[in-house]
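User:
Care to share a sequence and structure tokens?

Assistant:
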Amino acid sequence: MKTLLLLCAVLFCACHETKEEYVEHLTKKWQGKEVKFPENPIFTRFINDTVDYQTSATRYKIVIYVDSMGCMSCKLQLPRWKEFMAQVDSVCNKHIPFLFFFQIENKKELSYNMERDKFTLPVCIDTEDRFNKLNNFPSEMMFQTFLLDKDNKVIVIGNPIHNLKERNLYLQKIAGITINKLSETFIATDQEEYDMGIVGKEETKAQQVILRNNGTEIFKLKGITTSCECTTTEQDWEEIAPGETATLTVYYKAEQPGDFYRTVTIYGNVPGESLTLSLVGKVE
């Protein structure tokens, strides 16, 4: 009996990796792994117009796989991709191709988002999920984007739109940029989770977040990301002195009726380089 209990305890611990351990495991698994592409993929612009989108032999390419699970708007954030592509072009002497593969059912929604955001880059609509079947990509959205070398081997795994640490890593690898690390400080928020209550459909609701610098170094803001386009932020500061507070306003625009959970990640010189806030509520 004792042996059985001990075995169960060992299995329980083994099955409960921390987030850091899981990320490390995925990184090691995919580092240097070759990504295989389906034969004769068809690329289109705005879903309808087929285009000849050939990627010549380049030193790097960035590949984005988007599955059909979850909120499409949360996954896409096309304006941020346009910003990142422009940033990559600005620091690199040669063109870096971005290859988007969508395994989706609702083409109409994707087409609408692309036209609304003026996203003109050709994409591949992979309804049979051939790309994923060849590679067995991770199921988490945060690990479905890859920086590949000229041999299609993985250099970086991670989403540079949803994670600014990953964005910095992409830029470092592509352009050889070195980012100096600042001395760390400690930032606390007035709440861990913010309950926005009932939000009417199509209503935009604001939430004030108070940040306090409890450390001894100046907090320097590097950037803010949100889990969905429906969530935006606003602030009139870039630094917080030790012992001082600052206000961040978070706006949530209600979409589908039902419960919602959104996150806001603040990047800067804190342990782990970021802290994440969560917002919950219900759309009626």
